[in-house]
Amino acid sequence: GENVEQHPSTLSVQEGDSAVIKCTYSDSASNYFPWYKQELGKGPQLIIDIRSNVGEKKDQRIAVTLNKTAKHFSLHITETQPEDSAVYFCAARNTGNQFYFGTGTSLTVIP
Amino acid sequence: EAQVTQNPRYLITVTGKKLTVTCSQNMNHEYMSWYRQDPGLGLRQIYYSMNVEVTDKGDVPEGYKVSRKEKRNFPLILESPSPNQTSLYFCASSFPTSGSGEQFFGPGTRLTVL
């Protein structure tokens, strides 16, 4: 089955700096790649997603890039703010509609 | 308010005592899914359902059962819980793949099996 690896597991940045989280996947047929933010005590919430026919997508301070050839995708957060502190998960959906998640990145934005 | 609800939110039980965690969504989503979240392992999909009466195994289905008799409900059943099923469980729902694909997650159920 699919294998999604996520790095780094923890990330600390100064407020205003950028944060980048990277994921790789193994199934070249995977076609949908969402990113979720999970705050303490809550369920994951979608922050951005990208489909396999698109290379980049941006939503204000958040962007996702996808390299299908290399089978990796990345989350970019610019001008980080303290409220961006949370755990972030990448995921990949295969053609069978199964989802596989990365192991998460704990992001801390230092004021 | 559009939401996914789970009950109970917290449950402590003993090995072998059958339990059901309920999940309900009010967004008319076809796709529903159960995940378990364990430290260092991220979220792992247990079962998913593309529509009523259609269920499929995810990555870690052993020890779990599900049913989808109605579109809005997708209960998770543990017929004989064991301590290794102690975990945080999330239900999620979304429109099918032709739609946005965004999964909406419930608030989670923390299960402890003694």
Largest sheet of chain A: 6 strands, mixed
Helical segment count of chain A:
0
* Percent range for β-strand residues of chain B: over 45%
Helix content of chain A: under 10%
Which structural category do the helix and sheet elements of chain B fall into?
A: mainly beta
Give unreliable regions of chain A as ranges. Answer: none
Rg over C-alpha atoms of chain A, rounded to the nearest angstrom: 13 Å
Poorly predicted spans of chain B: none
Tertiary shape of chain B? globular
How far the N terminus sits from the C terminus of chain A, by CA atoms, comes to 41 Å
Q: Specify the oligomeric state.
A: heterodimer
Task: Measure the end-to-end span of chain B.
Answer: 36 Å
User: Helix share of residues of chain B?
Assistant: under 10%
Major interchain interface with per-chain residue totals: A-B, 25 and 27 residues
Shape category of chain A: globular
Mean pLDDT of chain A: 95
What key attributes describe this structure?
heterodimer, A: 111 residues, mainly beta, 6-stranded mixed sheet, 5-stranded antiparallel sheet, B: 114 residues, 7-stranded mixed sheet, 4-stranded antiparallel sheet, 11 strands, globular
